[in-house]
Specification:
Number of domains: 2
CATH class of the largest domain: Alpha Beta
Order of helices and strands: HHEHEHEEHEEEEEHEE
Structural class: alpha/beta
CATH architecture of the largest domain: 3-Layer(aba) Sandwich
Helix content: 25-40%
CATH superfamily of the largest domain: Vaccinia Virus protein VP39
Shape: globular
């Protein structure tokens, strides 16, 4: 998943589908500064092509990003340079601490076991400054995921016409989303590729337990980020 073809069209497709990276970043930054008003640094974990981080860079003096996918890292570095680090959110070490640590767009769901989730949150804690705050946009909860959900969009941007059709199914305690992309341009004609995304369907209680085991006091803000909500955590 998250291959080179997807990285090339990622920003264009999501923006055309209505994703407001700058607006989401402002909302999250405002929440963070209610907890830590003097925050000047931010780490965005699982930053993809860096679109949220690009917005955060205008709000904080120092920013950095972490991403596992090499094609996504390469795309993010075109925008933001060497502040983008390649690594696994379960075991990374950047040798720095940040006032704010974020994990956006449901990416935390790729921590596929409770042990992985706790390990990830412990890495967030290890990279957090004293008095800092962690904000996590979770994947769908076990009881809010809709199996069989189909979505489709067609959009045109920067000389490309792109179609995206997805179908989501449930496999035990995981979601499986298969997404077909068709991309057409005058120069290259039509191409098609498929991405498959697996994510763990945790309960809200499992998330809250994992935050506690990683050393955090956490609160949950419902009905934001398309209904998935947001976890806001500080050291316990």
């Amino acid at each position: 998943m998250y291959g080179a073809e997807f990285a090339e069209t990622y920003d264009l497709i999501h923006r055309a589908r209505g994703k407001d990276y700058a607006g989401e970043a402002r909302y999250v930054a405002d929440l963070a500064r209610k907890k830590t008003p003097d925050a000047t640094s931010l780490l965005d974990v699982a930053c993809a092509t860096g679109s949220h981080l690009e917005a955060f860079a205008g709000m904080f003096d120092t920013v950095a990003g972490l991403e596992l996918s090499r094609p996504m890292v390469d795309a993010a570095r075109v925008k933001l340079g060497d502040i983008i680090h390649q690594g696994d959110m379960r075991d990374f070490e950047l040798g720095a601490r940040f006032d704010v640590v974020t994990c956006m767009f449901g990416s935390i769901g790729h921590a596929m076991t409770e042990a992985d989730l706790i390990a990830t949150l412990r890495r967030f804690e290890a990279h957090l400054s004293d008095g800092g705050v962690v904000l996590v946009d979770p994947w769908w909860f076990d009881d809010t995921f809709t199996p069989g959900h189909v979505a489709g969009d067609v959009c045109t941007a920067e000389g490309l016409t792109m179609a995206r059709v997805s179908h989501a199914t449930r496999q035990d305690d995981k979601s499986r989303m298969e997404v077909h992309y068709t991309v057409a341009s005058a120069e290259q004609g039509i191409r098609h590729f498929v991405e498959t995304y697996l994510a763990r369907l945790y309960t809200r209680g499992q998330y809250e337990k994992a935050f506690a085991e990683a050393g955090f006091a956490v609160e949950y803000l419902p009905e934001v980020h398309n209904g998935r909500g947001l976890f806001l955590a500080v050291r316990a």
